[in-house]
Amino acid sequence: MRAVITVIGKDMVGILAKVATACAEANANVIEVTQSVLQDYFAMVMLIDITEINMDLAGLTAALEKSVPGMKIHVMHEDIFNSMHRI
Questions:
Q1: What pTM, to 2 d.p., does this model score?
Q2: Phi and psi for 82 in degrees, rounded to 5?
Q3: CB-based contact 44:15 (threshold 8 Å)
Q4: CATH classification at residue 18
């Protein structure tokens, strides 16, 4: 099982490290990451494996938001993400 994490907000040092650390603490494995900095804004999409995760996705979202305050963070199960983006 996989999930998609999106992170958007004002750029600052350590965003990727903090998000990856929160994922590791939840036992979610990071599979792929793409990120961009557009002037002062940071945007990232991360694909994670949640097969062995030790909390629900709402708990992971809360942990991520706590680890990187001020960022807009969404965690969505891959099935829901695919359904939303199917033509």
A1: 0.90
A2: -65, -40
A3: yes
A4: 3.30.70.260
Q: In the block, which residue shows the tokens 């990451």?
A: 33
Based on the number of CB atoms within 10 Å of its own CB, is 3 exposed (0-12), middle (13-18) or buried (19 or more)?
Answer: buried
Token readout for 81 is 């993400």
Burial of 46 (0-12, 13-18, 19+ CB in 10 A): buried
Report pLDDT digits (tens) over 27-59.
Answer: 999 999 999 999 999 999 999 999 999 999 999
Q: Inter-axis angle of helices 15-25 and 57-67, to 10 degrees?
A: 140
Strand partners, 37: 42
The whole-angstrom separation of Cα 41 and Cα 10 is 5
Range of the domain at 79: 2-84
Q: What is the largest CA-CA distance in the chain?
A: 37
Q: What is the number of structural domains in the chain?
A: 1
